[in-house]
Amino acid sequence: MTKQTITTLSIGTTYFLVFALVLFYALITVQSQKAEAVTLRTTLAEQTTKQAAARTVMATIDSTEAVRTELSGFFLSEKDTITFIADIEALATTLGVAIETTALDIERPAEGNPILKTGFAVSGSRSGVLNFMRALETLPYHSTLPSLRVSNQGDGEWQGQVAVLVTLAL
Question: How many DSSP H helices and E strands does the chain contain?
Answer without folding.
Answer: 4, 4
